[in-house]
Give the backbone structure.
Amino acid sequence: MNVDDLVFSSGQFLNLIESQGVTGTWGWRFADNQHVWSPGLFHVVGLDAQSTRPSYDRLVGLIHPEDRERMQTGFDLIHGVTLGQQTLRILRPDNAIRVVSARTEIYLGADGRPRGAAGVMLDVTDQERLREARIIEQQRRRALFRQTRTLTFSNDPDYAFSMPQEASELTGLPLQDISADAFQSVVREEREHWRGLSIEGQRSGLVHVTKPVLYLAGDDRGRFEVFTVPIRDAAGVVVDWSSLTRPIGSHTPLADDRLREGLEQAIDGRHLRAARALLDWSMTDLAQAAGLSLSTVKRMEENVDRIASQSRHRAMETLRRFGIRFSLMDGGVIGVSAT
């Protein structure tokens, strides 16, 4: 496993390995030279968060001297240059050496110029801890399926499906058949109807909901709802579709796995303004509560492209913490409510 694999991991898994000190993130805003490191990154590089002032130069200085020339410099980042995924050695202050898989992304302003950089480091020295974290995530998914018959799957823009074993257990159909064509699980008389609506939804690039009747194991049938959200890259291009399937009437939370990422990407200025109105907050209130700049919040509400995913996630988490709920409704509409 390397850092590129984290793109396709669930939010729970990412939080889990961060909490175990296996991965960490950093950010650098060029305009005011502001740097931030996550708690996990301090652990990965072996520094104390209370006594260390984060900076990109400090991070580069921790790279093993023999690997340092393969790490992009601060000058490179300011000028929009990154070197993709790198496997590097970290030389900790206690002289312990850790191997990390690292990736850096540049974030551009409205004028197309670099305005900041962010990166992630995954400690691959001890793959056993990653294996154990994967097992825990698989157990969580299995428990969710056993309790609620809820499962998640994905497909790329070319309709190549990635289906879990639970899909076969639910429908009684061979996994290879429904992996080749997920609509084989839809009853014959409804199959082409829902296939057409799904294709139309994905062509639109929007969140959408379908409600097909599925074949179930034991010669049974049942109507399910399938929530599908687009996953976009930094340029806004759809690179994957994440879906959650659950029985009609189920109240299983939708913000699970990659679905949370897709839902956050689909939330726009209208939803943020509605959330603020429910809390009676100004943009300044949201910025202060989320630890973001006022200009960042303003750009999010104006639907300016290329807002850093970390900033968007921080805003969403802050609103949820203060009782705001974002829910996916019929027709792919995202509703905003206060709990």
Q: What stands out?
A: The two ends are 39 Å apart (CA to CA).
